[in-house]
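S1.2 Input.
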Amino acid sequence: MLFQVLFSCVRVLFYKFILYFTFDALMTAMMIDTNDTARLVAQLLSVALAMLLETIYAKKKYKIRFSKINQGSLWKNLILCIWLGIGFNLFNNWVFKWNVVSDYMTYLESNTQNSFDIIIKSPILIIYSGIFAPAIEELFFRGIIHNRLETKYSLAVTCIITAVIWALFHNLWYTYLYVIPIGIVISYLYSKRKNILFPMAIHIGNNLFNLIGRGFGWYGLINQKAVGVGFIMIVIGIVVFCIQMAKEEISL
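S1.3 Output.
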């Protein structure tokens, strides 16, 4: 039974990739102009459509419920989640202090078109990448993958597997260094709070802060001291969440 649950998650991922490549091929075939912006838009939409359709299918098939919403503290928790998302984004800069990562980033920027440069020039793409895309990702990874694994695996195993699968969804190897730890925290928080809006808010806070900062040109200015500030924000956020869960008699 344990392997059946894991296999069902692999099958969901397989269907998602089949849908992605199908949508991407169809959109590419219908393109009149195949410039970098058009290709990026096609890829982003293909990913979103594939995850959305697979999420709808898996939710119905496995009878998954995403949330048990506690309206009393909903808005306070959402604001706290956005705070955590910004903290994670700032703390992630520790990765770029490694020479191997910074050198690789320099190589990418000099040899490829940076997708961020395309996204931050379009308000529609900023809204999509900062709000819509992370919401769909959380429905798929936390809502479907996490919930399926949690039916048969321990919380620790569920959080780790979900985080690793989520990290593999990101293309660049160095992102695994911070996506996996963040994924474990988000999955743990989701398991305890059982509200899909919370991981969505963390993810949106992280993405929007990154995009808006790059768009206004001040993101690079805060990179230098970002790690310490981000760490403090994460500690404060987690402590406040623990206090709230203790008040609501939710076990840690």
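S1.4 Remarks. The mean pLDDT is 84.
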